[in-house]
Specification:
By secondary structure, the chain is of the alpha/beta class. It has helices at residues 15-28, 30-47, 49-61, 68-89, 103-112, 129-135, 149-159, 175-186, 219-227, 262-283, and strands spanning 97-101, 116-120, 140-144, 168-169, 190-194, 204-209, 212-217, 231-239, 243-252. The chain is globular.
């Protein structure tokens, strides 16, 4: 999958595949489902040259061992975290040992009855942050580029009608979407955005990431500026077999985009974000889940 085309990929999976995954996990529990994931991940890595190449590309950039089994471990972690996301989204937290670094920031938001923007990445489990938001009784609204977000929401509601997690399809060209997000933030909601994938034809910035130029979107900062609320970086690092380390750290008190230096400000925020993501990616390399040509330079050996 090219960098330009990642958004056309149905990340939630087809309707039948999603329903099957949900039913297996529900009927047999996390353990049997994880065993099935091992077989699925092995077959995927065996069949997908691109998955092997892109996983090894990232690992090589940070000085990690590369090869088939290294790529397999990367894909397996992605499969395991994807499975766990179903449990997090349904509020089934008993399966996991969850630690929290920076939970005082969420507690402060709750005391002040203030919403916030949470910037995440395809690094570990973004949805594990639901554990923190549930503890603090704060609603979280992940914004996603998904054609099938409705299918995902419907599947979750069929299993847990009381779930307060709502995936919202992101469409920054729709004024109704912007107004809805602004209302949710004003009510104290946490607006969660994965900000590491550039969109074809979208507004992006080229910044340094792990020693090479890469495209990052600037849309999240434009949206955050319009919301006028605090911004935090968050991630949920997975440690096998059932531990998640939740991290929350301040990114900006507010995103400010002066009219005369708007592009420079967007570039600065994108670079700041890339630096934070790089730090966590080095600390937990098997939690990096971008399996496409992430960097802009294309002169790499396969």
């Amino acid at each position: 999958m090219s960098e330009a085309g990642w958004k056309d990929h149905d990340e939630a999976g087809s309707g039948w595949a999603l329903a099957l995954l949900v039913r297996i996990a529900t009927a047999f529990g996390r353990g049997p489902a994880r065993l099935a994931m091992r077989v699925t991940a092995f077959y995927f890595v065996l069949a997908s040259r691109q998955a092997r190449r892109t996983a090894n590309d990232f690992l090589g950039r940070i000085g990690q061992r590369t090869g088939f089994w290294a790529a397999y471990r990367q894909v397996l972690r992605f499969a395991q975290v994807s499975l766990d996301s179903l449990f997090f989204l349904r509020g089934k937290l008993g399966y996991f040992d969850v630690t929290r670094d920076g939970k005082e920031y969420l507690a402060r938001l709750l005391d002040q009855e203030t919403g916030a923007v949470l910037l995440g990445a395809h690094l570990g489990s973004f949805y594990a942050m639901r554990a923190a938001s549930q503890d603090e009784a704060m609603p979280i609204y992940p914004l996603v580029y998904l054609k099938h977000a409705k299918k995902f929401n419907d599947a979750l509601r069929s299993l847990d009608p009381e779930s307060h997690t709502q995936l919202i399809e992101m469409d920054d060209k729709d004024i109704g979407f912007v107004l809805k997000v602004r209302e949710l933030a004003a009510e104290g909601g946490l607006i969660a955005i994965l900000a590491d994938r550039a969109a074809a034809g979208g507004k992006n910035a080229s910044v340094d990431f792990l020693g090479a130029p890469a495209q990052f979107p600037v849309g999240p900062y434009i949206l955050a500026a319009s919301l006028r609320c605090p911004v935090y970086f968050v991630c949920g690092i997975y440690r096998d077999p059932n531990r998640y380390e939740l991290h929350c750290e301040p990114f900006a008190d507010r995103i400010v985009l002066p009219r005369k230096t708007r592009q420079e400000a967007l570039q600065k925020y994108a670079q700041q974000y890339a630096d934070v993501v790089a730090r966590y990616a080095r600390e937990a390399p098997d939690n990096w889940f971008n399996f496409y040509d992430f960097w802009t330079n294309e002169d790499r050996a396969d």
